Amino acid sequence: MKNLIKLFLSIAIVFTGLASFADGFWNPNIDVREVRASHILVSSRKEALQLKRDIKNGSITFEDAAMKYSQCPSGRNGGDLGFFNRKQMVQSFADTAFDLKIGEISDPVGTKFGWHIIKTTDKR
Question: Which of 74-103 are b and which e, b meaning 16 or more Cβ less than 10 Å from the residue's Cβ?
Fold first, then answer.
């Protein structure tokens, strides 16, 4: 009986360790508490898609597009929102910002405020 308990505990420890490893392996943002992101807020998905295309093909920089087209006051700062945690933003916005790699630009994200194009600029 004593050996059976030791075996069970050993197996539990191994699986617990593997689960922790897998979480860290599959979710590279597990230790990220805050991200710094910029965004462009517009009223339609169509407009957001066009802006992303223009940014992608080099017609305009993300920051210039934010200054020119964003309906958010952050637009005058190139869309910079500073650092924030997951709870400070609408969930779909935060999830996207945390999932992006640094420098990556999102597809349009819809929220109750409008349509966002998000660029993650730092993580900590």
Answer: bbeebbbbeebebeebeeebbebbbebeee
Distances (CA, A) of 95 to 10, 54, 86, 88, 91: 36, 24, 7, 11, 6
Q: How far apart are CA 3 and CA 5, in angstroms?
A: 5
CB-based contact 73:22 (threshold 8 Å): no
Q: Which residues contact 62 (CB under 8 A, 6 or more apart)?
A: 38, 40, 55, 78, 79, 105, 117, 119
**CA pair distance 66, 83, nearest whole angstrom:** 18
Which SS3 state, helix, strand or coil, does residue 69 take? helix
Provide the pLDDT for residue 31: 75
pTM of the model: 0.76
Mean pLDDT split into 10-residue runs, the chain, 124 residues = 63 56 54 93 98 98 98 97 96 96 97 97 96
Token match 């295309």: residue? 53
pLDDT on residue 32: 79
Residue 115 · residue 48 · CB < 8 Å: yes
